[in-house]
Amino acid sequence: MFYKDQRVVIFIDGSNLYAAMRALNFDFDYKKLLLYFQSSCRLVRAYYYTALGDDQEYSPIRPLVDWLAYNGYTVVTKPIKEYIDPVTGHRRTKGNMDIEIAIGMISMAPHYDHAVLFSGDGDFRCIVEAVQNQGKQVTVVSSLVTQPPMIADELRRQADDFIELDYIKNELMRDISVPNNTVFDRGLNTTA
Predict the structure, then answer these.
(1) 127, 100 in Cβ contact below 8 A?
(2) What is d(CA 95, CA 105) in angstroms, rounded to the nearest whole number?
(3) Rounded-to-integer distance, Cα 158 and Cα 144, Å
(4) Rounded to two decimals, what is the model's pTM?
(5) Are 190 and 183 contacting, i.e. CB atoms less than 8 angstroms apart?
(6) In the prediction, which pLDDT does 178 show?
């Protein structure tokens, strides 16, 4: 699916990937993901997009975001917004990263041949089509085997290729035998 000299950029919709991993019941090893792509193509950049709560003293996603930023990922964040639902009157939160991912895919298009989008959100169909119209190949990684499926049919049909996350999870699963105090930095495995 990938060629050794092909320039590839990865775009990860953090909340969408997290939901898919929970549905498939596995923990993702982000270092293995980089190594997986570095061994099969010219990985230009890997982006991870997520919304963060600014007012929280501790966010469960903060350690992951910090680790990614120090270990080969370009992390794009924005604050979670709170609002009152006008219909129900309940407090709601919003942290959609669709616009940021779309801008990233368009602005990086001159620098890649193949985009890999980790998301199943049907809203990305138009951006996938836009980069395809620039001569780029797009692979979408998500899951059809979950109930309900994590990928929108229109996105799957628009993509050049679709990778079922469940089929590659053994290659990308976090090894639970690695001690928690192990630090992966720039491909080196050292204990903290």
Answers:
(1) no
(2) 19
(3) 15
(4) 0.86
(5) yes
(6) 53
Per-residue pLDDT reduced to its tens digit, 98-146: 999 999 999 999 999 999 999 999 999 999 999 999 999 999 999 999 9
Task: Output 188 or 39, whichever has higher pLDDT.
Answer: 39
Instruction: Determine, yes or no, domain membership for 144.
Output: yes
Q: Which amino acid is at 18?
A: Y
Please indicate, yes or no, if residue 66 is contained in any of the structural domains. Answer: no
User: Omega of the bond prior to 86 within 30 degrees of 0, cis?
Assistant: no
What pLDDT, on a 0 to 100 scale, did the predictor assign at position 176?
A: 66
Between CA 135 and CA 114 the distance in angstroms is 9
Structural domain that includes position 114 = 7-47+95-177
Is there a contact between 122 and 152 (Cβ–Cβ < 8 Å)?
A: yes
Integer Cα distance of 179 and 183 in angstroms = 9
